[in-house]
């Protein structure tokens, strides 16, 4: 397929969604007033990106606070003598050493599976991903132990800058959609996928607002950072 450019025009996305979906547009205005303007382009779309390292870090961050996960990542980096988490560097330490860094048994198995797949050239690099569609990237990465669809969707949104991603299993997204459509309960993932059709081709940008809408509607002053899988 043609090469996919990382990122998209947030201003164009804002204008499109505001025009196409009246209910979402009204909430977007409310968010913009509270946050002193529309959600901008994400700087990470222009930054160097290493898929294998990002997946390894996503595994280590799972189910931990950012501070606790960062501590463990720092210990792992010190143990392997590198800030690059890959097959060759993670292979410098045995399992006991990584466990001593605070890596759980399940996460250790996930890191070893990721490393083995990288060694077999099963993990596409950034150049290869540029020529893959979203579904192909998901299908390639979710077989990795410890990597679910949500984690890949966060990569697609926040690192690859794909414009049309809607993480229908995310509770914040579902809660935001509930507020937008004034529903009695959060829509099920399948129903949300159908609702989200009206937000294409900028469902990623709509998702950024849905997270904020969920926080505002629930009385949370500031949205949490959901980009770290």
UniProtKB/TrEMBL annotation:
<dbReference type="InterPro" id="IPR011257">
    <property type="entry name" value="DNA_glycosylase"/>
</dbReference>
<protein>
    <recommendedName>
        <fullName>DNA-3-methyladenine glycosylase II</fullName>
        <ecNumber>3.2.2.21</ecNumber>
    </recommendedName>
</protein>
<keyword id="KW-0234">DNA repair</keyword>
<dbReference type="Pfam" id="PF00730">
    <property type="entry name" value="HhH-GPD"/>
</dbReference>
<dbReference type="InterPro" id="IPR051912">
    <property type="entry name" value="Alkylbase_DNA_Glycosylase/TA"/>
</dbReference>
<dbReference type="InterPro" id="IPR003265">
    <property type="entry name" value="HhH-GPD_domain"/>
</dbReference>
<keyword id="KW-0227">DNA damage</keyword>
<feature type="domain" description="HhH-GPD">
    <location>
        <begin position="60"/>
        <end position="215"/>
    </location>
</feature>
């Amino acid at each position: 397929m043609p090469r996919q450019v990382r990122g998209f025009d947030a201003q164009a996305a804002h204008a499109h969604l505001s025009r196409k979906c009246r209910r979402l547009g009204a909430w977007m205005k409310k968010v913009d007033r509270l946050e002193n303007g529309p959600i901008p382009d994400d700087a990470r779309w222009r930054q160097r990106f290493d898929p294998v390292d990002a997946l390894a870090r996503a595994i280590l961050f799972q189910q931990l606070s950012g501070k606790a996960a960062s501590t463990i990542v720092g210990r792992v980096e010190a143990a392997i003598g590198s800030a690059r988490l890959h097959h060759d560097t993670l292979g410098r330490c045995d399992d006991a050493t990584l466990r001593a860094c605070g890596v759980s048994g399940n996460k250790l198995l996930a890191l070893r599976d990721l490393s083995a797949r990288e060694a077999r050239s099963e993990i596409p690099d950034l150049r290869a991903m540029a020529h893959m569609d979203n579904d192909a990237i998901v299908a390639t990465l979710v077989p990795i132990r410890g990597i679910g669809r949500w984690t890949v969707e966060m990569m697609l949104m926040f690192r690859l800058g794909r414009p049309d991603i809607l993480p229908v299993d995310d509770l914040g997204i579902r809660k935001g959609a509930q507020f937008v459509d004034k529903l009695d309960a959060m829509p099920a993932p399948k129903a949300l996928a159908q609702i989200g059709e009206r937000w294409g081709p900028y469902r990623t940008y709509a998702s950024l607002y849905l997270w904020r809408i969920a926080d505002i509607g629930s009385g949370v002053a500031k949205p949490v950072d959901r980009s770290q899988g």
